[in-house]
Amino acid sequence: MKRCHAVRVNQSASRYNPYTLVIPKRAESARGTCCPLERQRSGEAPREAALPRYTFPMPGKRNFEDQLAALDALRQQPPEASAEPLRKALAHRNNFVVGKAADLVRQFQLTQLTPNLLTAFDRFFEDPVKTDPQCWAKNALSRALAAFEHQDATVFLRGMRHIQLEPVWGGSSDTAGTLRATCALALVQCRSLVDADLLAHLIELMGDKDKSVRVEVVRAIEQVGSPSAALLLRLRAVLGSGLNSRSPDKEPDEEPEVLGACYSGILRIEGQSAIPWVSRFLASGDDPAAEAALAIAGTHSPQGFDTLRKRFAEESDPWFCSVLLSAIALTRQDAALEFLLDLVRAESLQAEAAIEAILRAMPNVEITKRLEELVAGNQRLSRAFATHRPKSS
Questions:
Q1: Are residues 362 and 391 in contact, defined by beta-carbon separation less than 8 angstroms?
Q2: What is the pLDDT of residues 38-77, one digit of tens each?
Q3: DSSP-assigned states of every residue in 370-390
Q4: Neighbour count for residue 138 (Cβ, 10 Å)
Q5: Fewer CB within 10 Å, N- or C-terminus of the chain?
């Protein structure tokens, strides 16, 4: 039986049964029946139908659009002339209008409106699901405060701890992930916090349910730049990847993007000396290993190329071979380019993947011409060149 959601009309009923459809009785008035057909039969004069009780005036869409258009028009004015209109817009009750105003304040670098940003930020934490759905206002306000290098850590700590569950089909969804990530990155610039306290706050979000938040927290820890920060990233990489404890058929505990941010952060803090340590994660040949390869490529060093080349010589899986070749191309080393061109020149089994790796690295005109000359006369390689050649070449 289908479930009927009925409107309860009998106010004297003591219990509401959601499976029962309550049909109101035909109403009668002192002037006769309310049915138009019966009134016609009885000779009653027709009377105007009353408006339904649920009819109510809707807010003006035109007024809202005019407000947004007025904010867009401020882009054509000098920044100093926009301060007062934006001050008023930040006090608006609509979260979308406030968010748009906050973005303009940030773009115009109107730091004198920082107190207004803080007032608005605080206001949208009150009944946030109703006043700021999707966190549009809080996201834009936190971006502006971060851009102005606001130094009050309590503001960003409040944003980092905020969870906003909003109703969605079949349950609820947290819409405050972007806010937590923005505030985590902004917290790093608060000079009142020593490194130990800062890392203690950031590590709380390493277990956030939102993957994008975990990625940004890893980047925030990287920006701390201390040996303690590097050790934290090493710990997260080892635990998240299951290094030395994960069976080949089991997925890692952490998402590849988060692990990739850990690898890159370690290499940026410690430099090329960390390449041998990160290279251990290449052994699995899976998505986290691909992230490790790209992180090593990001060092743009001869040592990084040599590490990737040795791993390529050991690999037989076509997919991971193509990943390694792409990473080799991204090292931007002359020796790496010649290695890839040699694979094409020898028409090896990985020649097509080498062509794709070179072209995806956005080579200059000279390199593209050299590659085109190498594939001339070979239909298989010419087809690969034509497929992956950038449109502008």
A1: no
A2: 555 555 555 544 444 433 344 456 688 889 999 999 999 8
A3: HHHHHHTT-HHHHHHHHHHS-
A4: 32
A5: N
